[in-house]
Design brief:
Layout (H helix, E strand, L loop, with lengths): L2 H9 L12 E2 L3 E6 L6 H13 L2 E7 L7 E5 L2 E6 L9 E6 L5 E3 L2 E3 L6 E7 L2 E8 L2 E9 L8 H17 L4 E6 L1
Parallel strand pairs: 2-3, 11-12
Antiparallel strand pairs: 1-7, 3-6, 4-5, 5-6, 7-8, 9-10, 10-11
C-alpha cells in the first residue's frame, strides 16, 4: 500500500456514533442531618423511607449514637457506620442509595452496591468512605466537629486534616456532609 493510504487510515478519527460513549454524570441529591439519635429502629426506618422518597443518593448523619461500626445493608442503602463512644455519645453514619443511578457510560447505568463502598476512616465524630463504581470514584465524609470551646477541638481538627490529606493529594473528589 502507498504510504498516504496507511497514514490516512492511522490518522483518521472515526466518527462518533450518537455520543453514547460519553460519560454522563447525573444530578443526584445529598443530605446532611444531625439527627440527635436514631437508635430506635422505627426512627431509622422513618428517616430511610423519607430519604428514599426524595431520591437522595447520599446522606451524612451525625449524632446517630449507634453501637457498632462497619458496613451494613439497610433498606435500599449501603450503610457505613462509626459507632458512638462507650458513653453513647456521637456516632456518624453515611447512607448510600443502591437505587439511585449516579451516571452512565457506553449506555451502561451505574448504581452503587455493597462491593463499591469501603470505609477509609471511622471514629465517633468522623467517618470517611470511598465509592468506586465503573468510571466514578469519590469519597463521602460525615463529620461532627466539636464546639470551638471544647477540649477536643484542636485534636479533632488535627485528625481531620491528617485523614483528608491523602484524598486531597490524590485529587479525589470529596463530598462533605458535616456539622461543623
Amino acid at each position: 500500500f502507498p504510504a498516504e493510504t496507511i497514514a490516512k487510515h492511522i490518522d483518521t478519527i472515526p466518527d462518533a456514533d450518537d455520543g453514547t460513549d460519553d460519560l454522563v454524570i447525573n444530578d443526584v441529591g445529598f443530605l446532611q442531618y444531625n439527627v440527635g439519635s436514631i437508635l430506635p429502629f422505627k426512627d431509622r426506618k422513618f428517616l430511610a423511607a423519607s430519604i428514599m422518597a426524595a431520591r437522595v443518593f447520599g446522606s451524612g448523619l451525625q449524632e446517630t449514637r449507634g453501637k457498632r461500626s462497619g458496613k451494613f445493608k439497610f433498606a435500599d442503602f449501603v450503610s457505613c457506620e462509626a459507632a458512638a463512644t462507650p458513653q453513647g455519645q456521637y456516632g456518624c453514619t453515611i447512607w448510600i442509595s443502591t437505587k439511585v443511578c449516579i451516571g452512565s457510560r457506553f449506555n451502561k447505568k451505574y448504581k452503587v452496591s455493597d462491593e463499591n463502598v469501603s470505609i477509609l476512616y471511622s471514629a465517633p465524630r468522623l467517618l470517611i468512605v470511598s465509592v468506586i463504581v465503573g468510571p466514578f470514584f469519590f469519597a463521602i465524609v460525615s463529620a461532627h466537629a466539636p464546639h470551638h470551646s471544647s477540649d477536643l477541638f484542636n485534636s479533632w481538627w488535627a485528625t481531620f486534616i491528617i485523614q483528608m490529606t491523602p484524598l486531597r493529594k490524590r485529587g479525589i473528589p470529596v463530598i462533605f456532609l458535616a456539622d461543623l
